[in-house]
């Protein structure tokens, strides 16, 4: 037991005997070593690595392990693999917007336990793997807008319980599984506008007491018996969800959902508010990857709107 202590003391004694210039040389060598670890073409400053706008098609190598902010926006990345960010456990801000990303492997962000902000907007994502963010408990802002996402699976945000700002606008979403947002109890901002949503599972937003910004306008809302709950929910929150309008049936088209009376939300035949699920995903859980050939929601509408653009 005392051996370790005596060796440590002797080692410190030897180091203390070095002149000041040797300490300077050792520190300079350490700093140069950190600088040499900066990926080719990128710029490194402190704990920030800036690789944006370089036309990269593959993930850069030699990203320093102590990186806290990583900017990869404005490149030509098409795929994010599980190994791309392995070992980068101090990342707090990850910028991946304005790429061509169509595939994200489940587990790609698992090492980023400190991740707080993730931007994936303006990519080619069509679906989200379940449990993609399960190892990101600190994630507070997630931007998935302006992709081609068609469905939100039940476990899409499982584990990321600290999300406060979630942007899903300007996608092709027509399907939201029951419970998809259930874990997001601290959510303050939710944007679902400019999608193909026709119906939403009952009480999908009831567990969000802090919600202050909510956008659902510019969708294909079918105001039948399955959506009656939403009118009451909106009436109780008159400052959010403005311009949320019915698209069908014809007699309700263009009316604000909050203004439609309960008896007007009707279903034909033997349907009632509990007999029809607004969204189902066949074949069990979603695939491990996000890609253009994955399953689509059963209620996806034909002729979905073109990918919208957003000014810089």
UniProtKB/TrEMBL annotation:
This is Slit-like protein 1 protein. Gene3D superfamilies: Ribonuclease Inhibitor (3.80.10.10). InterPro entries: Cys-rich_flank_reg_C, Leu-rich_rpt, Leu-rich_rpt_typical-subtyp, LRR_dom_sf, LRR_TM_domain-containing, LRRNT. The lineage of its organism: Eukaryota, Metazoa, Chordata, Craniata, Vertebrata. Pfam families: LRR_8, LRRCT, LRRNT. Residues 37-69 form the LRRNT domain. Keywords: Glycoprotein, Leucine-rich repeat, Repeat, Signal. GO terms for cellular component: cell projection; membrane raft; perikaryon; plasma membrane; side of membrane. It comes from the Eukaryota. Residues 1-37 form the signal peptide. Residues 219-268 form the LRRCT domain.
């Amino acid at each position: 037991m005392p051996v370790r202590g005596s060796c440590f003391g002797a080692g410190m004694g030897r180091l203390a005997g070095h002149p000041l210039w040797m300490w300077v040389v050792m520190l300079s060598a350490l700093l140069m070593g950190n600088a040499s670890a900066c990926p080719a073409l990128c710029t490194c400053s402190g704990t920030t690595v800036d690789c944006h706008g370089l036309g990269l098609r593959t993930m850069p190598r030699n990203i320093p392990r102590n990186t806290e902010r990583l900017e990869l926006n404005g490149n030509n990345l098409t795929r994010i693999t599980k190994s791309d960010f392995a070992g980068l456990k101090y990342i707090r801000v990850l910028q991946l917007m304005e790429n061509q990303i169509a595939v994200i492997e489940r587990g790609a962000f698992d090492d980023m336990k400190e991740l707080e902000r993730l931007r994936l907007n303006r990519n080619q994502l069509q679906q989200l793997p379940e449990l993609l963010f399960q190892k990101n408990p600190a994630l507070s802002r997630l931007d998935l807008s302006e992709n081609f996402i068609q469905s939100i699976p039940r476990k899409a945000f499982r584990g990321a319980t600290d999300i406060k700002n979630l942007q899903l606008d300007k996608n092709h979403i027509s399907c939201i599984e029951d419970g998809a947002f259930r874990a997001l109890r601290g959510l303050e901002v939710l944007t679902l506008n400019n999608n193909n949503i026709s119906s939403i599972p009952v009480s999908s937003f009831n567990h969000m007491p802090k919600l202050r910004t909510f956008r659902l306008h510019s969708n294909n809302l079918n105001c039948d018996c399955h959506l009656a709950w939403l009118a009451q929910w909106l009436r109780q929150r008159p400052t959010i969800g403005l311009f949320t309008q019915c698209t069908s049936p014809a007699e309700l088209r263009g009316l604000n959902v909050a203004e439609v009376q309960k008896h007007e939300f009707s279903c034909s035949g033997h349907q009632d508010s509990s007999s029809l699920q607004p969204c189902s995903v066949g074949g069990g859980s979603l695939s491990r990857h996000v890609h253009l050939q994955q399953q689509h929601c059963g209620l996806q509408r034909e002729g979905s709107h073109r990918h919208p653009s957003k000014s810089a």
